[in-house]
Amino acid sequence: MYIVTAKEMYEIDRFAIEEGGGMAGKLLMENAGSQVAHHIKEDYAIDQKIAIVIGGGNNGGDGFVIARYLVDTGFDVSLFQLVTDEKIKGDSAYHKQLWINRSGVIEHVTEASQLQKRLRAFDIVVDAILGIGVSGRIREPIRNMIAVINQLDIIRIAVDIPSGLPANDDEDVDIAVKANRTFIIEAPKVSAFCEPTSKYYGGLGSN
Where is K(+) annotated to bind (predicted)? Predict the structure, then answer.
């Protein structure tokens, strides 16, 4: 098993994108999101309502892809974007537009109390808020939104890494999603196998 640090993962992705002539980033995101959606389809009942919470960066982009594939297979999916439109950039913006083009609805959520009210109606929340670049204290309002997700009686699925959790083993945890299941993308990160960070991952799945 190949275990990576955040720096090593960024280098792997950079090499793949450069070798792919500029299109590889979108394809990597498409492949990652479709595989996570496949695992969700295989492991969870189609009558369970799914909320996908979207942040900036590649993790959020994965969330848009996951939503497309789940809807196409018959799941009831709602998207909640927790950051401003300006923070959805590059490949993530591309996949957001694909979701919009298929008449996909996105609800913008700006406060933790608002997110809490919305998520009460769902059985599963897919965490696509923060990726592997986390370091130090999580900023508001995301910090309180993570707290809300942890407090609710809901199945929590993390995409690649629970939001708020550092990828490496040498950084303190401020607050992070306590996932029931984490679907790893490409390679597991160091924190998946270290105490006290491994407990945030729940069960591990792999693409």
Answer: 59, 127, 163
